[in-house]
């Protein structure tokens, strides 16, 4: 997937894995099949056609619900990105092909546009399994997620020996969490025409300005446990993002997404409501000045919070 063939923003469906779950789930969002169908319709009608999911999101539920939401649309009208997660690999001869087949089954398709190794559990062991999948056409493009520069280079070398390459990188990258930039991964991607997908640009809702100590993230959810305690320290940043947005008829969330676009990345925004698509459309149209970008980054640094996910290792190692 080169810089010219993907939309400016991809749509994430980790939260969709909570759908229909008894209890609070990871996000504590109350999502319905009809609501997500509306999200999909609005997305496709506004040109946001690339959907990111993973076998592990809700242990298959995200993929199943996504397929239902996209039902009836031509397969050529949207693109699917899903992942092999080493931690849930089976013990067959080819655990990557097995996990892909299960994803294809849930997604109701016979190929995925972009397939990821979800994390660098063992790069030398898992990367080679992508090669037959690329050759068979079951997978059109491949990428690596949560890999540091050395791990990206190793995966690229393994694929390169077979005539393929790492075509995309997907890492946590928000104004609050810029380790991939400090580690030179953004620069590497720019230099080698590798698309960098930034995930959690909204820090799971904490950067939208919609949540505060008086109106916290849903109680009992995993994201609440991570972010609710930080919300008071994020206030100056989200207030400034809201003010920058106000001048352009946009929200703090739109500015957080526009920041990631301005940095040359493709944000994956975890949309859960139909109105979020309007935000994505606005974000695509916002041009932040260099001064605004520097100001937001300084406010983010002053908040002094660490939002690295429990699944991520240190990119600057
Ligand atoms: N490769 C990896 O290891 C990895 C890790 C994490 C995420 N990802 C991918 O990246 C995607 C994005 O990350 P994420 O979903 O965890 O978090 P995110 O995009 O930072 O935040 C998503 C949350 O923000 C709110 N939201 C979304 N769009 C909004 C908008 N336009 N305006 C206001 N609020 C908005 C929603 O919360 P409410 O429902 O409360 O409104 C939603 O649940 C995931 O869905 C997944 O596809 C990949």
From TrEMBL:
Source taxon at top rank: Bacteria
InterPro entries to which the protein is assigned, alphabetical: AKR (IPR020471), AKR_Detox_Biosynth (IPR050523), NAD(P)_OxRdtase_dom_sf (IPR036812), NADP_OxRdtase_dom (IPR023210)
Keywords: Oxidoreductase
Pfam families in the record: Aldo_ket_red
NADP-dependent oxidoreductase domain boundaries: 9-300
This protein's name: Aldo/keto reductase
Origin species: Amycolatopsis nalaikhensis
């Amino acid at each position: 997937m080169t810089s010219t063939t993907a939309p400016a923003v991809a749509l994430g469906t980790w939260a969709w894995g909570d759908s229909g779950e008894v209890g609070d789930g990871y996000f504590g969002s109350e999502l319905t099949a009809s609501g997500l169908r509306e999200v999909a319709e609005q997305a496709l009608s506004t040109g946001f056609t690339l959907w990111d999911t993973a076998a592990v999101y809700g242990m298959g539920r995200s993929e199943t619900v996504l397929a239902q939401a996209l039902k009836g649309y031509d397969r050529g009208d949207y693109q699917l990105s899903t992942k092999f997660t080493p931690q849930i690999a089976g013990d067959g001869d080819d655990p990557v092909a097995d996990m892909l087949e299960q994803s294809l089954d849930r997604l109701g398709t016979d190929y995925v546009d972009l397939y990821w190794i979800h994390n660098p559990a063992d790069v030398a062991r898992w990367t080679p399994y992508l090669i037959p999948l690329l050759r068979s056409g079951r997978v059109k493009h491949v990428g690596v997620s949560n890999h540091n520069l050395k791990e990206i280079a190793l995966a690229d070398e393994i694929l390169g020996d077979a005539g393929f390459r790492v075509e995309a990188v997907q890492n946590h990258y928000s104004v609050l969490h810029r380790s991939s930039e400090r580690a030179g991964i953004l620069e590497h991607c720019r230099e080698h025409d590798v698309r960098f997908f930034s995930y959690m640009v909204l820090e799971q809702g904490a950067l939208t300005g919609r949540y505060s100590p008086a109106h916290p993230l849903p109680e009992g959810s995993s994201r609440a446990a991570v972010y609710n305690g930080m919300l008071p320290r994020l206030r100056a940043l989200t207030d400034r993002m809201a003010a920058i947005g106000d001048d352009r008829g946009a929200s703090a969330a739109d500015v957080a997404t526009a920041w990631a676009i301005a940095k040359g990345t493709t944000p994956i925004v975890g949309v859960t409501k139909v109105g979020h698509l309007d935000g994505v459309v606005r974000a695509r149209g916002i041009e932040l000045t260099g001064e605004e970008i520097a100001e937001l980054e300084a406010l983010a640094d002053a908040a002094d919070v660490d939002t690295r996910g429990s699944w991520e290792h240190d990119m600057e190692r």
